[in-house]
Predict the structure of ABC transporter ATP-binding protein.
Amino acid sequence: MNGQRVPVFEVRGVTRVYGDGESAVHALRGIDLRLDEGEVVVLLGPSGSGKSTLLNILGGLDAATAGSVRFQGTGIESLDARALTRYRRDAIGFVFQFYNLIPSLTARENVELVTTIAPSPMDPMQALALVGLENRANHFPAQLSGGEQQRVAIARALAKRPKVMLCDEPTGALDLKTGVRVLEALMDANARFGTTLMIVTHNADMARLGDRVIRFADGLIREISENPQRVPASELRW
Ligand SMILES: Nc1ncnc2c1ncn2[C@@H]1O[C@H](COP(=O)(O)OP(=O)(O)OP(=O)(O)O)[C@@H](O)[C@H]1O
């Protein structure tokens, strides 16, 4: 990262309550956070502590009960339905634990689904080449390993040139070797395009990958720490 910090997200007092009355679940209890351009941030915390809820709110998949999220200076809560769809579609790349590829489409066609609607997409083959899968373009998801499927999902997210990639347990279903390749593909996107990365994980060792580590507990940020330097994915242990 260079010295000049440009905020991508500014989060103020975000809460999220599911349900009401006695059965209300307070998933987020007041989150304040700033995320800068080009940063790699790792979110750690026990199951149910609110990590996915925050990611979904940042990505416009869910709305905060209270508080504000500014993306490049604009409050996403003020966007109308059309603008919110455009935001979700163009600015944000999502990577989930279980790839969410369309089984009846090839790797290339899965990426094309996105490039046909994005405003300034990459060529689908370029996106697949970035994750080392140009020679698997005509394979269907069932013909690919879990790690390869996840890399197709990353290519699909990358192909629209998103400002931010929100990754919810991207290696949760993978073993060490394939998980490392997936993380390398994400870190490569950060290095080449300056894509800001937010990675949710249960794996404490993955914290070493990021510039900052955010520890969640009970719907709150308990700690934010900075790493002196990023550790390459190949040096992580599962
Ligand atoms: N749609 C929903 N309706 C009701 N409760 C929900 C909903 N989504 C999440 N929750 C609750 O909100 C809390 C936070 O969930 P969240 O998925 O954000 O946690 P997490 O830290 O990502 O957990 P995990 O690591 O297991 O994915 C949990 O108690 C969860 O049960």
